[in-house]
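Q: I'm building a small set of examples for a reading group on sequence design. Run inverse folding on the following structure and report the sequence directly after it, with nothing in between.
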């Protein structure tokens, strides 16, 4: 039973993480520009946020989920502004090709940025609440072991996707010169900025 829930959770985590969005763009860009570890850590931030939302939904913490839903406009506003900041910063980033594998501050920045972005996306918590409720895994049942296995599966599935994405992007790292990196920065920055504009536009 627990193994089945772990696999279901992994499938849920993988499917929620897989659609290419601003975090996926960030992960690819950071992998190519700064190394596979930087890209993987960026994905780890998103997976950690997914696990937190999975806990809220899986353990039936309805007072938290209801609060987040009520504050979805505020979250979207903050997330949209942060996307604009990241997009503009990425667009004008220098193509030094400096690696962040041994730069603790840089890795924490990569982790926290995607962690924050995922938390400010109200669609994520709504998705988990709907999926977990449909599976009947909530705290009202008192089945904390099942909820825990499901959340662990979500984190594992999400990390599997980010590992595959950063691994795939790393194949292109050595094939791109400084000039190519400049274009990657500009294209990535533009895409992320567009996501930010769209997020803000939806509010108005």
């Amino acid at each position: 039973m627990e193994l089945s829930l772990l696999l279901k959770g992994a499938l849920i985590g993988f499917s929620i993480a897989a659609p290419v969005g601003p975090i996926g763009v960030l992960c690819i860009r950071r992998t190519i520009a700064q190394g596979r570890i930087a890209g993987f850590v960026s994905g780890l931030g998103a997976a950690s946020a997914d696990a937190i939302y999975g806990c809220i939904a899986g353990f039936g913490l309805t007072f938290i989920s209801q609060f987040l839903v009520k504050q979805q406009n505020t979250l979207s506003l903050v997330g949209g502004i942060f996307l604009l900041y990241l997009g503009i910063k990425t667009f004008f980033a220098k193509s030094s090709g400096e690696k962040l594998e041994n730069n603790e501050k840089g890795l924490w920045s990569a982790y926290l940025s995607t962690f924050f972005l995922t938390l400010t996306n109200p669609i994520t918590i709504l998705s988990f609440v709907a999926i977990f409720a449909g599976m009947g895994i909530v705290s009202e049942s008192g089945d904390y072991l099942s909820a825990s296995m499901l959340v662990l599966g979500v984190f594992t599935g999400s990390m599997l996707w980010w590992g595959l994405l950063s691994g795939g992007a790393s194949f292109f790292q050595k094939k791109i010169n400084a000039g190519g990196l400049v274009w990657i920065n500009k294209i990535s920055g533009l895409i992320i900025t567009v996501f930010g504009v769209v997020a803000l536009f939806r509010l108005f």
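The chain has one domain: 2-203.
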